[in-house]
UniProtKB/TrEMBL annotation:
<dbReference type="GO" id="GO:0003700">
    <property type="term" value="F:DNA-binding transcription factor activity"/>
</dbReference>
<dbReference type="InterPro" id="IPR008920">
    <property type="entry name" value="TF_FadR/GntR_C"/>
</dbReference>
<feature type="region of interest" description="Disordered">
    <location>
        <begin position="1"/>
        <end position="23"/>
    </location>
</feature>
<keyword id="KW-0238">DNA-binding</keyword>
<dbReference type="InterPro" id="IPR036388">
    <property type="entry name" value="WH-like_DNA-bd_sf"/>
</dbReference>
<dbReference type="Pfam" id="PF00392">
    <property type="entry name" value="GntR"/>
</dbReference>
<keyword id="KW-0804">Transcription</keyword>
<dbReference type="InterPro" id="IPR000524">
    <property type="entry name" value="Tscrpt_reg_HTH_GntR"/>
</dbReference>
<dbReference type="GO" id="GO:0003677">
    <property type="term" value="F:DNA binding"/>
</dbReference>
<protein>
    <submittedName>
        <fullName>GntR family transcriptional regulator</fullName>
    </submittedName>
</protein>
<feature type="domain" description="HTH gntR-type">
    <location>
        <begin position="26"/>
        <end position="93"/>
    </location>
</feature>
<keyword id="KW-0805">Transcription regulation</keyword>
<dbReference type="Pfam" id="PF07729">
    <property type="entry name" value="FCD"/>
</dbReference>
<dbReference type="InterPro" id="IPR036390">
    <property type="entry name" value="WH_DNA-bd_sf"/>
</dbReference>
<dbReference type="InterPro" id="IPR011711">
    <property type="entry name" value="GntR_C"/>
</dbReference>
Length: 239
């Protein structure tokens, strides 16, 4: 992985690059963050295991600065834990009780946020929704683990966007504090999760863009119920 990361950044640009506009390159910090997220989601970094910053810096071929920045982001999202005088470690898998609580809360709040987002629809929110939906439909990376982690991140951003567009800051904060969305993707590392979720997201977006609060709320409720069903077998397999 170190070779891929460093080589991609050191490789000279093609001759034609100077004569055409290209999309902004992803920052090193974002790239490191997504690589670490992919390792956590795919369980390459085991739940509960200590994360050595110096070892990661050597593995990825970068300084410790972007590693620390990425770990702080992941800590804020509940993917890693930081213990004073010990360092960072991967967060444990959510317990069955925590899983139930997460989805109970989502079912209470997210249909509401989708409905309010439809009622509050503006030109700006419309553009933001279309952009978020479009990102999830872009061609996936050939690296399955990286593609999966990227979708997990985009999925979290999609739900956070709708919560923000609801205009209810308290609800948005409650959802943000209550669960780390990407963490749940460690339960089911499977392409079916992304394929079905994309279709469900499209239904939510369609309803919001139509300004149909009732349909948006129903589409979000259906999505969360389906999501819970996709994740539930993980706990059944453990028993």
């Amino acid at each position: 992985m170190a070779i891929e990361l460093s080589a991609r950044r050191m490789r000279p640009a093609p001759d034609q690059a100077a004569s055409q506009q290209v999309a902004p390159r992803q920052s090193l910090g974002d790239e490191v963050y997504e690589l670490l997220l992919s390792q956590l989601i795919s369980l390459k970094i085991s739940p509960g295991s200590r994360i050595a910053i110096d070892a990661l810096a050597r593995e990825l071929g970068v300084s410790q600065t972007p590693i620390r920045a990425a770990l702080i982001r992941l800590e804020n999202e509940g993917m890693v834990l930081k213990i004073h005088n010990v360092g960072f470690s991967a967060a444990p898998m959510p317990s069955r009780e925590r899983f139930v609580q997460i989805y109970d809360l989502r079912l209470l709040l997210e249909p509401y946020t989708a409905g309010k987002a439809a009622e509050n629809l503006s030109d700006d929110s419309r553009a933001q929704l279309l952009e978020a939906a479009g990102l999830m439909n872009e061609p996936a990376s050939k690296d399955v683990k990286l593609a999966y982690s990227k979708f997990a991140l985009q999925d979290a951003q999609f739900h956070e966007l709708i919560a923000r567009q609801s205009g209810n800051e308290l609800v948005k904060e409650a959802l943000s504090r209550a669960y780390a969305h990407a963490q749940l993707f460690r339960l089911r590392f499977h392409s079916r999760v992304t394929e079905e979720a994309i279709t469900e997201h499209a239904n939510i977006v369609t309803a919001i863009l139509a300004g149909d609060a009732k349909a948006a709320s129903a589409a979000m409720e259906h999505h969360i119920e389906q999501s819970r069903g996709r994740m539930q077998p993980f706990f059944d397999d453990m028993e």
